[in-house]
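[Q] Does anyone have a clean structure-token version of this?
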Amino acid sequence: MSFQVDLLKPIYDFLACRTPQAWVDAACQNIPLLLQDHANCEKKAAGTAMNLMFRYGAHTELQVKLAQLVREEMLHYEQVIEIMRQRGQVWEAVSASRYALGLRKHIRTHEPAALVDVLIVGAFVEARSCERFAALAPYVDEELAKFYRYLLKSESRHFEDYLTLARTLVADSERISIDERIALFRDVERELIESTDNEIRFHSGVPLLN
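[A] Here you go.
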């Protein structure tokens, strides 16, 4: 569909790689696990945005954008939970993947650099989520395919919102440093996606499953 191509181009341009087919194949064999982890990811995304709102209350534009994001992420969390309920899938505890931690360990500790890096990480998480919705849609059942296409349309702008917020926090003279940080996290993110992984999660790397 042309609208999907238009939505995906900025995401593909932003990310350094596409999802490996081996991940798609493994994910399609583990849909219940993927749904559970997807629900966790939506809830964590809302929680992260809410924490930023409390921590950085002086940034008005950040407050407005993140409040919108919290509402959307919680709606999507509820929708994933409803899909699980309709399929008779009970909630189970699932460990987090190495993906977010692998990105966050590169976040600087001084301000405003720390906030800039957190927002850049948020941009990559959101962009990869949308890229994976698109990667999965042709291979899953029609109910899930419709849902993933809806999420792609709904969330495709989130990564750009995060980047815009990051750029508004620094002076024009420092913009080049933000581009350098984006480049750094792009390389880290690519490595996490393309390297082998011992588990299958929504943001995991190439699975090594028994």
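[Q] Thanks! Anything notable?
[A] The mean pLDDT is 92.
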